[in-house]
Here is the input.
Amino acid sequence: MKDKEKRKLRGDVEGNARALATGFKYLVEPNRMTLDYPVESMKLAPNYRGFFTVDDKKCIGCSMCEMVCPPEAITMIPRVVSPTGETLPVQEGASQEAGAKPAKKTKRPVVNWGRCIYCYFCFDICPVDAFVRSNVHDLAYYNDADYRPSYEGYLKLPEDPVKKSKKVVPRPDMKRGIKYEPAP
Amino acid sequence: MNLNEKVYDISEAGSIEPEGDRTIALQIGPSHPGSGHMRIKTRMDGDIITKVDADIGFVHRTSEWLSERRQFIKAIPIVERIMLPDTVHANLAYVLALEKILNIEPPPRAQYLRSLAAEINRITSHLYGIGIFGIFLGSSTVYMWAFGDREPFIDLMEMLTGARITNSYIVPGGVRWEMPKGFKEKAESTLQYMENRFNDYNDIWAKNPVVEARTVNVGVVDRNRAISLGVVGPNLRASGVDYDTRKASPYAAYKDIDFEVPKMNHGDSYDRLLIRIEEIKQSIRIIRQILKDMPEGKIIADSIYSQLNPVMKKVFEQEQRVMFPAFFNQMRPAAAESIARVEAGRGEIFFYLKTNGDKYPYRFRWVTPSFRNLAYFSDVAVGYRLADLPAIYGSIDYFPPEADR
Ligand code: SF4
Ligand code: SF4
Here is the structure.
């Protein structure tokens, strides 16, 4: 107990002086690592898990992604395969030409962005690797319905909302921890 | 002060005080005035705390229940969400329990990558704790510093896994992504940066006389009391018990790694502050060893890899990304039970998993470190002044969502 008291008394002047000096050092030379968003924004690595879409031609409609999705963000919607290999919406009550082959029915996934947690389980379970990444992660929508795109809306990869900003990448730095350098 | 005196429910407004009782009720929280999402019901005699009753459950999210009503693989994101500063450890603990039931042994490289992710995560978790303790004592500098210094480590995790916090990195059989190119160099510079920062942390925080004055000899828990209260993690080691699950029952790559378990002697708030800094130093040492000694080889067990279809195998060769076999969707482990223990940032996580051949777990019980440290909190603050409460509460690094689950 006595040792502790002694240590404290000895440290009082010196310790306060050190704390003040360190504080002063950072007052003069701040080590901010703030990203000046949206003037600058991050160029994300290729493996970043951002918004994604599905390759309509690759997908085989197996529903594995729907099954694995933890928050149940994926809905499978019915589609029909067109002669070109792309899928078309199912037309209710569309008249079949006599003799024509009935269109092949299939399903395609649509993601509800309000539920998705970007775990990418759907990516990894897909037997044909049909999902496509984007490097966009900073999107917000104005109303609830926009979080649930139509299939056509979902197929378009979202645009980067801060396209015009200066793109930077984080680099480790001995003084600041992270320094943002212009993206190569 | 008689600790055995009858306790009156102070949650009822205007409750009748016993005659001659000079204590008053004081409620701290639950709307987060530094209490976290919990209510601290205290009784005060003047400004001396005579009783602390932690009222928890404000952020209870039925996580256990949710994970028992989904396929096994879907529990991975759920367990992560109880302890966001510390996701890898929760993920690892669950996967360890599941692997025991499925009888899968991950390859050595995957073990090392798991430990790597876990140690990076431990550093971010401890920095989180240091930052919160800082703001509790009114030091917004340390708060900003610690949260800022988490950033380089979170950036490392982002490089490794593609996500900052909710990594979902560990799956049965191994890990999902190979270490990307340039990771070692980046990690080494980040570690060096953190080591240089310790001097500044000492000056402003750990060796600062103001901090010492507020934390030395405050909230003392001696060795025996800490053991009997069932304290875990850094708080236990601050009281002088060098118990660490990584040593006591090694998992992942820890049996091959040489590291020390730091411990302190006094068990006061100041020791609980220092121990986290010491543990960050050990984690840095572990990460260096892992990066140096990481064995070559696959990152996923052969039993999982052999189930991949040709497209998936090609993806693995090109991108070093492990895709999931259909088995992950349709797992129906035979009836069995298993436990897993993992030393997380705040202490030992204990998971109990019971299966009965169904596609959902029969029971999945979680015991989280914050919950176990709660017992401690009700006991340790008694007898100190009200102004000491933040110094005690902040030092135990309690994370309400982790305790409430
Ligand atoms: S990333 Fe995860 S949450 Fe999002 S759609 Fe895919 S599986 Fe579902
Ligand atoms: S898992 Fe792949 S192939 Fe199957 S439905 Fe989903 S996107 Fe299509």
Summary: Residues A 54, 59-65, 109, 125-126, 128, 130 surround iron/sulfur cluster (ligand 2) (CB under 6 Å). The radius of gyration of chain A is 27 Å.
